[in-house]
Amino acid sequence: MPKIVDHDERRLELVDATWRIIARLGIEGAxxxxxxxxxxxxxxxxxxxxxxxxxxxxxxxxxxxxxxxERIREVxxxxxxxxxxxxxxxxxxPLDSERVNEARIVVPFWQxxxxxxxxAAIHRESMDQWRGAIQGYLTEARRQGDxxxxxxxxxxxxxxxxxxxxxxxxAALAPGIETDLGLGDQLEAFLTLLQAGS
Amino acid sequence: MPKIVDHDERRLELVDATWRIIARLGIEGAxxxxxxxxxxxxxxxxxxxxxxxxxxxxxxxxxxxxxxxERIREVxxxxxxxxxxxxxxxxxxPLDSERVNEARIVVPFWQxxxxxxxxAAIHRESMDQWRGAIQGYLTEARRQGDxxxxxxxxxxxxxxxxxxxxxxxxAALAPGIETDLGLGDQLEAFLTLLQAGS
Lengths: 198, 198
Prior knowledge:
DNA-binding region (chains A, B): 31-50
Number of helices of chain A: 8
Protein name (chains A, B): TetR/AcrR family transcriptional regulator
Order of helices and strands of chain A: HHHHHHHH
Shape of chain A: elongated
Organism (chains A, B): Arthrobacter cavernae
Domain HTH tetR-type (chains A, B): 8-68
Oligomer: homodimer
Largest interface: A-B, 56 and 55 residues
Radius of gyration of chain A: 19 Å
GO molecular function (chains A, B): DNA-binding transcription factor activity; transcription cis-regulatory region binding
């Protein structure tokens, strides 16, 4: 019987290897050769999975997004309003080394997306999904009487989403992976402002 | 008499050419050859100004930062508190095509900075300066009675700065340079929250 190869699993192994290489050498140093070596693949064996580094980077971005969404589903289960919004943001913010490494995948993806409409569209779809989620939590928060401010929730959602994006930049460019950037405090301060006057 | 060459001016010509090329071809397509061609320099004539594309990108980043600061000085002159804070943020936000093009320089610089400690330090120094400016405006706004919220101004400054960074990503990845991203409205909503309950 032929050996059964789980192609999805192998793709994820390659994504993990890509992360380690990008964290160590940067996106430009992350050649297909280096990634193959790190993942224990023969040189050229990546091609059936990812014909180009570009396809690998797009897959890695989608994987970061999907993985974050899985974590979000777990931490927001049974929560609503401000409590759910806090849990959502804590999961998106790069507050531990795993998520700082994710930021280091996301920033190169953004850079590529500037001149690649397909990548830019993937980014925008992902962000539309998150903006919608944030807005849903705000609607619940209003219903629960926690937010009464005279602001448009879709606008506030866009503001908060941009802050979450900017936090990825701050984390990716911090002097060390464990640097405390005060992002958790920034989130709390924003939630305080949101609920002020209620 | 020998022809007097203004080297600073020629450097700025090269930065302008770099912008046009990056906007057209992306950072990877912006070879020293393409930039020289665009600026009307002979191939190789760039070397005395910028030995590498990397030095050119760093110069361009500093130039964007300095130019933004010049605009900030003009628009905040004679203003204080919330009024000055609004003027500052409007100038940093990518609200017109010139500043969207600046965002397209800044995002590739950030990507390079992830694995280049010197570039990352330049970014952090610039951001420290802006965080300090924002905090100064908030202090004035409290003194004027416009802000009374029970939040730490240095934390709120960090939050707002991250939103301004995230807005660069949103603008650089928007489908068109004239897309309305609602960034002005997001700023106003944040200023409303900041003053709520006062």
